[in-house]
Amino acid sequence: MNPKNLAKAVVDRLLEADACSTALGLEVLDLDSRYAVVRMTVRGDMVNGHGVCHGGMIFTLADTCSAFACNSENESSLLSSAQIELFRPAMLGDELTATAKAVNQGKRKGVYDVSVLNQDDLLVAVFRGQSQRLGEALIEQ
User: For 67-101, how does the pLDDT look when each residue is reduced to its tens digit (9 = 90+)?
Assistant: First the structure.
């Protein structure tokens, strides 16, 4: 199976049991080996008391995008730590696009950077996640 098709099959499998991503309306735009692009529209139930998108929603978008990238090679992986820098607020109705790319993927540990842009291509956040491979496949090939 080529890398794009493998990544799609793995993410399809992950999404079967991912009620959170479904509830948030996350849309997968592109996948490849160690790479993912995911979009989310900021809804009314994602806005905090300041009238802007809750930072936790942006973190969840970036975390999910990172998860799709680090699991894309059919190596079951979980996030072991992460940090996020928020640069500008996202507003109700904004379309946020997260792009995850591997910085390094070793036998067990990986580092993935995610940039989150709004519909005007302005940087909203940068996320760095460290992943841990579990030594098992997600799908049979």
Answer: 999 999 999 999 999 999 999 999 999 999 999 99
pTM: 0.96
- Cα-based distances in Å from 28 to 7, 37, 50, 65, 136: 11, 6, 29, 8, 24
Residue 57, token pair as written in the block: 């929603």
13-47 burial, b at 16+ Cβ within 10 Å, e below that, comes to ebeeebeebeebebebeebbebbbbbbbbbeeebb
Rounded Cα distance, 13 and 136, in Å: 14
Cβ pair 126, 85 in contact under 8 A: yes
CA distance 118 to 37: 13
What are the E-state strand segments in the chain? 27-32, 35-41, 77-86, 95-105, 109-117, 123-133
